[in-house]
Write a structure and sequence with these properties.
YaeB-like fold; 3 helices; 103 residues; 31% strand; alpha+beta
Length: 103
């Protein structure tokens, strides 16, 4: 991904981020700003399955995928175990397929 990207927040991701304290919101906002600027080296991320990835910010995770110059933030969750919950990956894949089918 090169150049600026447009961030799209699905309501579950927006609601999760909005519910965090200001320090956690700020850390995630800095990661998202870097991603939008095309700097994928700054935010700590991990590939979950196929195009589905997660931003790692302390105990918080935000699932997302990139399509062309668009970043779709799907849903946030608090990390409690070593692995991402299967339901989060399954939900993200479903959203990915839905958005790809309308494009």
């Amino acid at each position: 991904m090169a150049g600026r990207c447009v961030a799209h927040f699905l309501s579950p991701a927006k609601d999760y981020i909005d519910g965090l304290n200001s320090a956690d919101r700020g850390a995630i906002a800095a990661d998202i700003d870097a991603m939008q600027a095309g700097d994928l080296g700054l935010p700590l991320t991990k590939q979950l399955k196929g195009p589905i990835r997660e931003i790692i910010s302390g105990f918080h995770r935000i699932t997302y995928f990139i399509d062309a110059h668009n970043i779709y933030f799907i849903r946030g969750f608090r990390k409690k175990t070593n692995k991402a919950p299967v339901r989060e990956i399954t939900y993200a894949e479903k959203i990915y397929k839905q958005l790809k089918s309308i494009r």
